Amino acid sequence: MARSRFLPDNFTLALLCTVALASVLPASGAAAHALEATTVAAVALLFFLHGAKLSRDAIVAGLSHWRLHLVVVGTTFVLFPLLGWALRPVLLPLVTPQLYTGVLYLCVLPATVQSAIAFTAVARGNMPAAICSASASTLLGIVITPMLVGLLLPEAQAHGAAAAHGTLANIGRIMLQLLVPFVAGHLLRPWIGGFVQRRAAVLKVVDQGSILLVVYTAFSAAVVQGLWRQLPWPALLGLVVVCAVLLALALGLTTWAARRMGLSTEDEITLVFCGSKKSLASGVPMAKVLFASHAVGAIVLPLMVFHQMQLMVCAVLAQRYARRTSPNEVAIKSVAASA
What we know:
Elements: H1 10-24, H2 30-53, H3 56-63, H4 66-86, H5 88-91, H6 97-107, H7 114-122, H8 127-152, H9 154-157, H10 166-187, H11 189-198, H12 200-224, H13 227-230, H14 233-260, H15 265-275, H16 280-290, H17 293-322, H18 327-338
Helix pairs in contact: 1-12, 2-10, 2-11, 2-12, 3-8, 4-8, 4-15, 6-17, 7-8, 7-15, 7-17, 8-10, 8-15, 10-16, 12-16, 12-17, 14-15, 14-17, 16-17
């Protein structure tokens, strides 16, 4: 029997199991330090493989849609942070201050890459533009996200592990962990690109495995510091409501903007799926750089909830877009009717 589209996917179930494992058997001491080094290496490998996978032809083809890319970037790094900040009087009473910090952090993250491109493909959207927008968002986020964290969350960042060196040092650490491997992979693409493309399953394992490792280490540190004793159940239920509100606003506003701008349906699909998503793959490693280790678990919890919610909702939207009639099909039906 096929799984319902409203049920969690295997990766989400693995995330839930990882959180449960960290809650029951958190890593501490020497084991925690060893896992920390392992996760840094795994995340670097992940971005190296993504760099090798990204086609230069797709970048060139997508760059021509500059107006679309500007709107995607504006939605990701301007609209989302404004929503999180402006809705504070409404959102904060639903969650704890610590979870609201995680909500604001969610709002300043870059867009996700794989799922945005995958949903654009399913919905028959502008694939080259989606690849370019999603990849550019990830790279821009390496610089913009730490700056926005310093602007919106100075008190939270002040207790972070690298805060003594300021925002520029945080950007440097993130670039070293994410951007440098990405660029190295892309430069080596002529030699290893085909190998990576043929082994998509390996990339998926590295992708999901690195996130699970980071989540386990983050939640282990948080559990050791008493995470679940500090988070009441009503606040967790409120977090679901908060994420639903943010996602609904993002989807509604991107759809409205696309139609106001007169974009084609293909470009609208790209804007909706690239502009409404937030990256778990980038967000969790960045959080470990920007915040104290014991706070990371609660800060990434909103991102994990939002991640699953965006997957379920966008899966439904992609199928709805896919069922539309294309201009070619309309032309064929017109010819057939007049024959």
